[in-house]
Design brief:
Chain lengths: ~160, ~90, ~160
């Protein structure tokens, strides 16, 4: 934004993290947190290669809810697969073509894929066009690609904008 | 008293998890398997420390858990990068 | 080892309902932590084993941390929210760690149950010992290697 406060959202997050870390909201800690939240983004601004602008924060918030819910389901499904007979598991690699662009969006998508049902993102092609995903149950690759595209990638496409 | 019982069950389960991860660490067979086993050991240790904190009703264990989580991640990254690149700091 | 626990369970906020909730979260969390390690031991190839610790274990420890947060909030003066910090940290680092370990495994050509993705794709990151069977690199590497992979540090 301005030279003095390059990453307002990062500053806000840092302040929150600091208050969580010290586990109190006294005036002293609040002031110290404010100083840190101002100084750290200023000092590290040059390391931030790419930036994004959040166009629709509500879509992003909804995506967060979806991901949290899916994580719960993911755990139950993995737990069921693991505790059952192993011969029923047919793992495999699935190549997912990507539509999102930019470091932030792609790494967000890769991490979401890792945390949600039966898939772990394993490799990203050098041109960032393809994500290789390892699926625990890869009987139907098309379905996996479809879920990733519609459930996680589309909200990211809608909500984030490369700056 | 339900909580002491729950804690005892949880201690047994998490200790079992530690043993299972240790078994994978010993068996291998590949190097990434061992890194994964170490990573899991770290996370299990965090779980054990959190349980101990509740058991002894002490906040002191939290810092230890946080530090182990941090070092575990750094260790995993360093080992993986070493396998991928041959050295860690280029 | 029983004294500290029984002597502190006298706070006014500590009720049977809270105790049941905390106990439930603790048992569920420990069970998931254990299942993650069971997956680590039982599954057949490295890439499948990756699923257990990244998912089951994070949720397990997350659940334990929520239990701890409720426990200390009900006991002590004021809310205790710093457990969320550890949970947040684990949720952010688990997929990144898994990705790096998987990349290391692909680099070493650790074989999975269903083979490997095509070599031409994986060659983007340079193999330590050139593999005679590997296909020649299809495209020259992009000029800025920093942008090539967001999960990898700059060279």
């Amino acid at each position: 934004m301005t030279r003095l406060l390059p990453h307002p959202i990062l500053s806000l997050m840092l302040l929150g993290l600091w208050l969580l870390l010290v586990n109190s909201v006294s005036v002293g800690q609040l002031l110290l947190g404010l100083v840190l939240a101002w100084a750290i983004p200023l000092y590290t601004a040059r390391f931030w290669v790419s930036r994004v602008r959040v166009r629709r924060p509500l879509v992003l918030l909804r995506l967060l809810g979806v991901v949290l819910y899916d994580m719960l389901v993911a755990n139950l499904s993995v737990a069921r697969l693991v505790s059952g007979p192993i011969a029923r598991i047919h793992p495999g690699f699935v190549r997912v073509p990507l539509r999102v662009q930019g470091n932030v969006a792609v790494s967000l998508l890769a991490n979401i894929v890792s945390l949600t049902p039966g898939t772990v993102s394993v490799f990203l092609s050098a041109d960032q066009r393809e994500l290789i995903v390892h699926a625990l149950q890869a009987d139907d690759p098309e379905a996996i690609i479809g879920v990733i595209r519609h459930r996680y990638e589309k909200p990211l496409l809608d909500a984030l904008e490369q700056v | 008293m339900i909580l002491p019982w729950a804690l005892n069950i949880a201690f047994v389960l998490v200790s079992l998890a530690l043993l299972l991860s240790l078994a994978r660490l010993v068996i291998g067979p590949d190097k990434p398997d061992r890194i994964l086993a170490l990573d899991t050991l770290y996370v299990n240790t965090v779980a054990l420390l959190v349980l101990l904190g509740i058991r002894l009703a002490s906040n002191l264990y939290f810092e230890a858990a946080l530090l182990i989580a941090l070092f575990g991640f750094v260790g995993t990254v360093a080992l993986s990068k070493y396998l991928t690149r041959g050295d860690i700091i280029e | 080892m029983t004294e500290p626990l029984s002597s502190t369970l006298t706070s006014p906020l500590w009720s049977l309902g809270v105790e049941i909730l905390v106990s439930l979260l603790i048992v569920i969390g420990a069970a998931f932590t254990c299942l993650g390690s069971v997956a680590l031991l039982r599954l057949r190839d490295f890439y499948s084993r990756l699923h257990g610790p990244t998912k089951a274990t994070t949720l397990g420890v997350g659940s334990l941390l929520i239990a701890s947060s409720i426990f200390f909030s009900a006991q002590g003066p004021g809310l205790s929210l710093h457990e969320i910090l550890v949970a947040l940290f684990l949720f952010i680092t688990a997929p990144v760690g898994a990705h790096l370990m998987a990349k290391a495994a692909l680099h070493l050509r650790v074989r999975g149950q269903s083979g490997l993705p095509p070599d031409a794709l994986l060659d983007g990151q340079g193999v330590a010992q050139p593999d005679p069977q590997a296909a020649p690199r299809p495209v020259p590497r992009p000029a800025s290697r920093i942008d090539a992979d967001p999960l990898r540090d700059a060279d």
